[in-house]
Structure formats: C-alpha cells, structure tokens
C-alpha cells in the first residue's frame, strides 16, 4: 500500500504539497496588507502615467504650434516616456478594477482601457498609408473634411469636419474592434507613420532597415495636405488620454472616502460599495495571471513571433514593442514584490510563498531574455526583425513567451499562498487563442 | 478551449505506466512512418504524378495525425511546444491562408521570401496547393516542394527531440504518464468538438448549422481518413495487446469499469468512422460518430479521471 501511494501522483496536489500553503491573515476589521500594497502602487503608478501624459500633451502642443524636426523629436520622446509609466499600469487590468470594469458602480470611471491602448489598429482609417501594391491610400479621417464612414459592421457616419475628442470617441471602434480612433497608438501612428511593408514585412520595403521605425515626414505637419487636421487630431487624442487618466487617477486617489480605492480597502463611506477581501484578491490574482499569460505572452508576443507578423507587435509604428514588453513585465514584478520605482510599498504577493524557487527561476530567466531583447533593439535590430523566422532571436522570444505562460500558471500557487484558491480557468482569457 | 486546459493540469495520474516498448513501437514508429510518407510525397511531386500525389497526401495526413495524437514532446521540452503549429494550423491560427497562397503564386517575389509565414508551409497549405492548383506550373510545384520539405524538416526535428528526451520520458514515469493521458484527453475533445461537432452542426459554436466544408481536410476529402488515424492511435494507447498500455494500468488501479467504457466507446467510434465518408458528417452517420466520441470524451474526462482523482487523494493524505 505504501508503495502504491508513492507511485501515485497528482500534478496539482504535488505542487500544493510542496508549496505548503500559507495564508495571509484576513481580518474583518483590518485592511488586508496585500490590498494596501496593491492600491498604493496603483495610486502612484497611475499618477505617473497621468503626469507623463500631460507632458506628452505639452510637447504635442509645442510641436503642432511650431512643427520642426526638433519639436517633432521632442513629441516622440514624450510619447516614448509616457509609455514607460503607462505600460506598468497594465497589470491593473482584467481585475474588475476601474480601468476596464464591465459591471459595478465603478464603471462610472469610464473603463477607458479600450480608448487608451487599443491595438492593433487599422491605421488606414486614420491617415494615408502605402498599401500592398505600393499605392497611397485615401478615404481616411484625416483627408475627409465632412461626414466620415469608418466602415466595418453597422458603422455610424460621423461628422469629422473638426477633429475633437468627442468626434474621436464617436469613431472609436465604430464599425468594429479594428476601427481604433483613440489612444496612445493613434498618436504613435500620427508621429511615426507606417513602418510595415503590407505586401511582405520581411521585404521591409517601406522604411528599409532593422533599426528604422516609421518615417513620417515633417512635411505632413507643414506643407503637405491636411497638416492642420493632423494637428487637430494629435491634440484631441492626447486630451482624451489625459481626461481618461484623470478619471482613473481619481479612482485611486488617497483621501477620498467615496472612490474605488476606498472601496477596495473596505473604507468607502458607502459600505455597500466595499469589496469583500477574498473577492478582491481573487480578482486581482486572476487578473494578473490572465494578463501575463493570455495578454502579454499570447496576444502580444506569441502571435507576433509565431505567425510571424509585424502587424501584431504592440508598438509597430515606433518599434517600441521591446519597451512595452519590458514595462508590462515590470508592472507584474511591482505587485509581486511590493515595490515601485525601487521603493518598498509593503507586503508583496510573493512574500507568503514558502518555496519561491521555481517562480524566481522563471523571473530571472525572463529578465535575461528581456534584457537581451532590449539590447538588440537598441544596437542591432528592432523587435520586428527579431521575430523573423531565420533570426536566432526568434527562438529566444518564443522561450520568453513560454516562460511568461509558466509564470502565469504560477499565479495559482501565489494565490494559494495568500489564501486564495484559483484554478487554471481563472488565469485564462476565455477568448484566448490556443497557441 | 479553457475546458481543455483545465483538463491538462488537473487530471490525476498513476505511475508505472507506459513502457519503453510503447515509446518505441508507437511514438517513434509513427514519426518515422510520417517522415517516410512525406519523403514519398516529395518524390511524387518531383515526378509530377498527380494520381500518386493525391493518394500519398492521404498517407501523409494519416501518419501526421498519428504523430499529433500522441504529441507530448512539448511537455518534455518547451522548445518543442510550438512545433506542431508549424506543420498544421487547424484551429491554431485565425489566418485565411488561401488568398495569401494565391497572392504568392501570382507574385514574382522569390518564394523563400514570399512564403515567410509559418502557415504558408503547413499541411493545410500543401493540401490547397496540391488539390486546387496546377502542378505543371513550375512555381506551384516549387511551392509544393518547399512546403513538403518544411514539413519533413519539422518531423525530423520531432524525431530528434523524442530521441533526445526519451530518457526523460522513461525515467519520470509519473510525468510521462500524466502528459500522455492529458494529450489523449485534449485530443479527444478536439476530435469530438472541432473535427466532428463543428462539421455536423452539433458543437456549441455551430449548433444546427452543419457544413461538410468545415471538416479538417475538406479540399482533399481526407477528413474521415484523419479521424480514423486519430482513433487508431488512441487504440494503440489504451488497448494494445503488445505492451503495457493505459488500459492495463487502469485495471491495475481498479478502474476496470471506466477503462472498459472508454475502450467500448473507442471501438464504437472506430466502427462508426469506418462506416462513413467525408460527405456523411451532416447525416446520421456523422451524428453517430459524434455521439460515440462524446462518450469516449466522457469516459476519459469524467469516469477515468474521477477514478484516478480518488487515487490522488491518497498521496495528499500521505503527505509524502
């Protein structure tokens, strides 16, 4: 019988035994320390994202008031900088929080994630591109002075005579998910322009080079047709980003007994809004797992490298995808270790784990691969070259994807260590593409 | 899809399971057969013999499905996790490859560059090229050869991988048994839901919307051929007289009734598949096959797993 027992094993139960679950004390009266860490990091991270978006707004205003090579470069630098802080906030997604809640009172914050960071987008809807046959496209928002039909499924025709934030909101995903009219990547396209050769991205016939991103001409903002409309578009788009981030920042602000942060910490003056600790933690752990596994590993890396497809890299106009991946993973580590910008924010999610060996090993390996990807992106070749089938780096990026998926699976055990039961169902996006 | 993944991680497992004989007689033999069949297909394409090409493509389909049915190399080493995707994109890719292949045929770009996507070099692409295009055109013929050679190279990679990790498979019997059973269960779900249910209009996604063209190899008429290969391989796993298989192991651990249910459902499925053609998915024959594979799925997932799940609790109590 003893031999039989030793010959029997369960994947899940073995791991559970090894981990030896340790629950964080969950008091009805005291705020859970994990939630405090989580909420405080959200507060400062979103504040940074908002401030960086405002800096972007200033640089875009400077650029559109006085379009020069220098002001255009400054605007691009501000966009890249804004992505650094926003990228880290993405770990707060998929947890029924204010950034993307689908139900609950806190949807009143606007759930603006889709407006802020939607991708991939159909850039042909926004401005001209060079199509697969080398022809310049037209019939977009920029070159349409009146009523604009975005196309797609049951689209609503919108008056785009003047491009305002309201107009962009009306256009966004009007006719389908690809009809993205708002957010960071729209500004990215308007600053950098097209990088991809639609006929065959391996040929790279549009920008010609492993270290070249989109090469939009300054003339698009000076002497070329519709220069003023592009300026309108940039300023309207960044205004919307700022407004949306102001809304989310207010949800996480300190000193407001009526906001989401107060509810998450069980201190909302309207007690009916307070979120049960276990429910909150389950949503958070689940969201983290889904983000790392389904979103970062699958949607943002796997599809790009396994197809391969430049269209499916995250920042395909600026070739900033390596930083997107880096900062998304940094955001995950912030919560895991309870730190942000090298400051300690209290108890980290990993602290309760007795045996951290596997998870830490995966994190170290992912760090190495991300560092390598960043170095190559700076000195040798951008992400869209690294994913080419014959590039040795493609194999490393596939390994990176696999390790991120494994880290996503580890969230079950991180959660378990903190007294929360998750299953694989909780860390997979229902619509995830099987890869 | 989530359903599958849940199965994969949560199924409980018994060790001392599959033997070296199984590894060599099923996994290795099947992959070698697949390589030989692709080599023959390459010869047929070079000889421009349309009749043989079409017949041999059926053999490639059949032998590849056998490899796919027990594919567990990705679990032995994650570097091989995505390899099947480079051979076969059925339900693994949202791309519409037919217009892309048409563009490639009609362009003047070098094929090496034009066929840059992995999907351009899969068995699905090969089927389209072999069965809808004129192989007397040199560019089409070259495309077919590039695809076939690509498939062969990935099959060789799989063979090398199995040889390299054979010891890992045999040393860690618990793990080997677990991933083999998980592969079986996941494959049965795909068989029932995608390869039969979606076509017969019996899956959730296509309820009451049968369409034969949704079958896996609708263009070449090899869909039932593929299903038979999958079922025959499952018989190699759970009902072989030649080596210790899952059927034997299950009986050892008092899951006799459950494994017998599975074998019965499998035998029924094989009989049903043998009694139908590619045009029968949308009639009663297709419905019967769906029902028997559904029983097979339940036998694996509910009955057998439940039985083995009881076993796993012993370990938990043991605390060892």
Automatic annotation (TrEMBL), chain A:
The chain crosses the membrane at residues 7-26. Residues 44-408 form the Imelysin-like domain. The keyword Methyltransferase does not apply. GO terms for cellular component: cell envelope. Its main location: other. Signal peptide: none annotated. The keyword Transport does not apply. Keywords: Membrane, Signal, Transmembrane, Transmembrane helix. InterPro entries: Imelysin-like, Imelysin_sf. It is found in: Cell envelope. This is Imelysin.
From TrEMBL, chain B:
Keywords: Signal. GO terms for cellular component: cell envelope. It comes from the Bacteria. The keyword Hydrolase does not apply. The lineage of its organism: Bacteria, Pseudomonadati, Pseudomonadota, Gammaproteobacteria, Candidatus Pseudothioglobaceae. The keyword Endoplasmic reticulum does not apply. This is Imelysin. It is found in: Cell envelope. Residues 38-292 form the Imelysin-like domain. It holds the Pfam family Peptidase_M75. InterPro entries: Imelysin-like, Imelysin_sf.
